[in-house]
Specification:
By secondary structure, the chain is α/β, with parallel strands linked by helices. The chain is built from 12 helices and 16 strands. Helix 1 packs across helix 9.
Length: about 375
């Protein structure tokens, strides 16, 4: 089985030796009650990592909360910002984990379609004028999961302006922003319109270091951070001290981290190109493929009426997996002509074989 389905980093991008050295350094730090790395810590996070995140984002410590992955940040914000029955807006299609967190918080979700430039902010503005009253708008502005799109600067500014005018918060979930391998970087949503005060950024070590460390962060207004901290304390007391110190050690070594990210970007650039080439060679006009300038995903849409939800079982029989587009819709009924393909975990020659298998499944008769 060759999988194009997972949102996993390339195994070769996980530097176990570098993490081991950072773990050794963390375990050498002795506190008054024993090794700091093995002791309970503050719910907000260890000051060393919080200070590093604060410096990187140009904010104060009171605006930073360390989370157990950015997924926990989504969950905390859904419950911090919304009561049951409140409205949240997402881009359609949307990250499945965000939909699950919002559903768990009993939030009513409204979807606004997006395109190559991200969520359609003009359409959102029209919905707001028509009476839509969300508590939050959730976006993945850089290399969106699942479509790989990048929210344009114009739309980032407009989204901030709508946020200020209508009083909703923007959750800027950015786990892929440092994985750009083509094109020019775009300022963060928060930095696109400074001073609005309604943008909360989520970041993660998962894609830039290792997901097994389970370390993320939230940067936002002190009142929101304080409320989210209380919810986190009830959920898990704090993110593990050991992995926080490991991440702080790794990120503080800016030279090695920059080199690591350069290697990851080069790897993903090569694999993204290989997947695009394979799709053109084996499926040709059967699919329309969005361009990819970073991240881990390609969004492909069938142009011949193929239902990718139905196709999935045949693809598995042919030895290849992907995620049907319907998995990223609110009710499972939309995007049945689309699929998310990840290029991160397979080598170029494996990607070609995987797409060849997909093409064989595509043309195989239904049973």
């Amino acid at each position: 089985m060759l999988s194009l389905a997972g949102g996993l980093p390339a195994p070769t991008s996980l530097d176990a030796e570098r993490v081991r050295r950072a773990a050794d350094a963390a375990l050498d730090r002795m506190g008054t009650l024993g090794p700091t790395a093995l002791q309970y810590g503050p719910t907000e996070g260890i000051d060393e990592l919080r200070a590093l995140v604060a410096e990187r984002h140009g904010v104060g410590l009171d605006q930073v909360l360390i989370t157990t992955g950015s997924q926990q940040g989504i969950d905390l914000l859904a419950r911090t910002l919304c009561d049951a029955g409140d409205v949240a807006v997402v881009e359609a299609p949307s990250y499945l984990g965000a939909l699950q967190s919002l559903a768990a918080a009993e939030v009513r979700v409204e979807a606004i379609e997006g395109d190559d430039a991200g969520i359609d902010v003009e359409r959102l503005a029209g919905a707001l004028r028509a009476g839509l009253d969300p508590q939050l708008v959730y976006v993945v502005p850089n290399f969106h999961n699942p479509t790989g799109s990048v929210l344009s600067l114009e739309r980032r500014v407009a989204l901030c302006e709508l946020s200020a005018a209508h009083g909703f918060f923007v959750i800027e979930d950015d786990p892929y922003g440092e994985l750009r391998f083509a094109g020019a970087a775009v300022p963060s949503v928060r930095d696109s319109a400074p001073g609005t005060g309604h943008v909360i950024r989520l970041g993660s070590a998962s894609k830039i270091l290792a997901p097994g460390l389970r370390v993320g962060w939230m940067v936002g207004p002190p009142a929101v951070i304080d409320a989210a901290t209380r919810l986190k304390q009830a959920a898990d007391l704090h993110t593990p001290s050991l992995t926080q110190l490991i991440v702080a050690t790794l990120l503080r070594d800016e030279t090695r981290q920059a080199a690591h990210l350069d290697d990851v970007r080069a790897l993903y650039r090569e694999r993204s190109a290989a997947l695009h080439t394979a799709l053109a060679a084996h499926l040709g006009d059967h699919v329309a493929v969005r361009p990819t300038t970073g991240g881990m995903f390609v969004w492909a849409t069938a142009t011949d009426g193929t239902d990718t939800h139905v196709l999935f079982d045949r693809a598995i029989e042919h030895g290849v997996a992907y995620v049907p587009g319907s998995a990223f819709s609110l009710d499972g009924g939309a995007f049945r002509d689309a699929m998310r393909l990840s290029f991160a975990t397979l080598a170029p020659e494996q990607l070609d074989v995987a797409v060849a298998r997909l093409a064989a499944a595509w043309t195989a008769p239904e049973r």
